Amino acid sequence: MAEAQIILSHSRESGIVAIAAGEQYPWAHTALAESGFRRDDEGVYHLPSDGTGTTVAALVACAKRHRTSVHTSSRRFIGDAARDLAHQLPGRWHASVEIYSHPAWQEDLVPWIWDSGELGRALQSERIPYAATLTDMVQGTTLLLVERPGHQLDYLVGAFAPEGLEEGYGDPHAPRSIVLPPFAGRAAQAVADRYLPSYEQAVHARRTAVIAAVLGDIRSEHDTWQAMVDSGRYSDATPLSAAALGTATEEFLDHAWRRFLTVVDHAPTLIDQCRPSSSPWPEDSTTLSRLAEAVADAETLLDEVVHGSSVPQERRARAWPAIETWLTDGETFLRQARVSAPHRRPALSVAAPARPLAVAPAARRSR
After folding, report:
1. Rounded Cα distance, 132 and 357, in Å
2. With contact defined as beta carbons under 8 Å apart, do 119 and 113 qualify?
3. 3-state DSSP call for residue 9?
4. Across-strand partners of 145?
5. Are residues 271 and 288 in contact, defined by beta-carbon separation less than 8 angstroms?
6. What is the Cα gyration radius of the chain?
7. What count of other Cβ atoms lies within 10 Å of the Cβ of residue 283?
8. pLDDT confidence band for 54 (50 / 70 / 90)
């Protein structure tokens, strides 16, 4: 890709639109502004409604003066493709355009994409100067739609890591992105019937794994602390004074509380998905209720801590019973969570005529 580049495409509503790209993208911005293009809030440049072919021709000449190359995309504007797709997905979705003019902006995006498929690889190895996001306004799920590199029609769709699980780069639980055809109806059906169920199952598995890891860590630290109490010595056999034991106890409780907040974040959703009566262990319902109550107590305590109405000593005393309940019965929760698949979304009808996503006339970031 040239140091500065202008990519022209056609929008159903706006006509000719332009996106600046390249390490020297400000040169492209200058050429577009001098040629009469206007930039919107997403960073996309639009040719004014009274613009003519002469204006586009002038852009080519102006761009050359500013050492910028001009290219025409064979696809429709990515914003139109995203809005067409969002309109046909179940629920309420919002589409917006993302621009990664400088290659570094695309690199910044990589750690936030939760994907184990082609999209994740493409973001790391191919130049993608723009994309679109689709956000479920109820569930909060955010998808990334890009033109599939090396193909003239197809798209790729994947997802950002869900809130609270943003450290998921390279996570083995990450879902695999899928290829979408250039027709909104068929693409929406693929997203609704294939991708979103796999994404929800991946979120469920990741949350379950995170809670299992947290409980394992707290249990290990508790065993270490208990051994110190029982022996009256540090792990290296050095005698442990009463004051030192008190300090060690406070440190253990504080660390356990901080880690337990992960359980508070993710357990309620997983508990809601558990159906012990239809599992091999219907008797687990009482235990799950007890675990849910412990989380509710921790949520109340957290609210008081946030508002400054709980001192450390009180917080330690009130937090431990909830943590201890989860250490005792956490395995019951985990076995229920592991057999509780998330609800599948309803399949879409494809009776409506397919609307093309990408057939065009030739023609998490905006900066």
Report:
1. 13
2. yes
3. strand
4. 132, 157
5. yes
6. 27
7. 10
8. low
| Cα 28 to Cα 5, 25, 42, 46, 72, distances in angstroms | 6, 5, 16, 14, 14
Distance, in Å, from the CA atom of 224 to the CA atom of 219, rounded to the nearest integer, reads: 9
Q: What is the mean pLDDT of the chain?
A: 89
By C-alpha distance, which of 326, 105, 305 is closest to 219?
326
Longest dimension (CA), the chain: 87
- Residue 228 corresponds to which tokens in the numbers above? 């110190």
Give residue 101's region: left, alpha or beta (phi > 0; psi -120 to 50): alpha
- Give the number of other Cβ atoms within 10 Å of residue 348's Cβ: 18
Three-class SS state of 231 = helix
- Taking the C-alpha atoms of residue 256 and residue 258, their distance in angstroms, rounded to an integer, is 6
Output the six-digit token pair for 105: 């902006």
Which SS3 state, helix, strand or coil, does residue 184 take?
helix
Asked if 179 and 356 touch (Cβ cutoff 8 Å), the reply is: no
Encoding tokens for residue 89?
């997905």
- Write down the residue that tokens 């790729």 correspond to: 156
Give CA–CA dist 140/156, Å, rounded: 20
Kindly report whether the global pTM for this prediction surpasses the value 0.90.
no
Strands, E assignment, the chain: 5-11, 15-21, 38-39, 45-46, 69-76, 93-99, 130-136, 142-147, 155-159, 178-180
Residues 69-84 pLDDT 10s: 999 998 999 999 999 9
Token pair belonging to 141: 């799920």
Structure tokens of 193?
A: 């019937």
Segment 2-18 mean pLDDT: 91
Helix (H, G, I), strand (E, B) or coil at 274: coil
- Beta carbons within 8 Å of 278's beta carbon, 6+ residues apart: none
CA–CA gap between residue 144 and residue 362 (Å, rounded): 25
**Which H, E and C letters describe 153-174, residue by residue?**
CCEEEEEECCCCCCCCCCCCCC
